[in-house]
Amino acid sequence: MAQPDTTHTVGLALEGGGYRGMYTAGVLDVWMEHGLTCDHMVGVSAGAAFGYNFKSRQIGRAIRYNKAYCADKRYAGVTSWLRTGDMFNADFAYHEVPIERDPIDLETYRACPMRFTCVCTDIETGKAVYHDLPYGDERDIEWIRASSAIPVATRPVAIGGHKYLDGGVADSIPSAWLFAQGYDRNIVVLTQPAGFVKQPNSVMPMLRRVFRHYPEFVAALDHRHEVYNATLDDLARREAAGEVFVVRPSESVKVPSLCREPDELERIYQVGRHDAEATLPALEAYLAE
């Protein structure tokens, strides 16, 4: 993110986290209101889904459609999971809503020079796959769906002969990948507050059974908390050295994976807005250095 006249190149990484991503949506909306953008954005899961609007410059869209449809059984729920294998309905949530009901502004999306990348996990290799999204249409939305596909709650998403699930399994916070791109300034938006430590997955025995034919994916699931916490340690060192600007929730934005309360989504969104406004002077100073 950068003012349009900056001489610095700027990269932005967005953590996922399901509906905790409403925090990120609030941050991005404030930045757009202040005319901020970036050269390259990389997002994981909800970070990709809600970051989508940062490239199309649609302030308020993420919170609007999520509040409108979070309680709609066509959008997400156990019924969709039992009928289709996907908790978030592929047809309604990833086609009807973004294409017909509250469409992405494709003209603005494609005209925006920002490079936008999402992260998925290849279930055969257990490795992260970083895929650019230049079109904004259903070709890219299918990659967003793959990036957001929660194991067990969603079927693997097949694209180009490969099967993908949640990008957060292999790379929950794609900061190291972003740093490797060589931008002058780097910003990371987290969806967990300071001091958070990720714990081992309590349902690993079940996940080992479900994904027994994909041992590399199981290994990635098993070590996810270790990789996540090591990434936080690396960010803390870089932040202290002034090498990255980190925005994180000033209070808990914990929320169920399936939230049907629009007011709770609004609360999380407003925390993001508040934190973005509070950190804006420091961010602008970081970008101007």
TrEMBL record:
Name of the protein: Patatin family protein
GO MF term (any one): hydrolase activity
SUPFAM superfamilies: FabD/lysophospholipase-like
UniProt motif DGA/G: location: 166-168
GXSXG, short sequence motif: residues: 43-47
Cross-referenced PROSITE patterns: PNPLA (PS51635)
Lineage of source species: Bacteria, Bacillati, Actinomycetota, Coriobacteriia, Coriobacteriales
PANTHER family: NEUROPATHY TARGET ESTERASE/SWISS CHEESE D.MELANOGASTER, PHOSPHOESTERASE
Short sequence motif GXGXXG: positions: 16-21
Domain PNPLA: 12-179
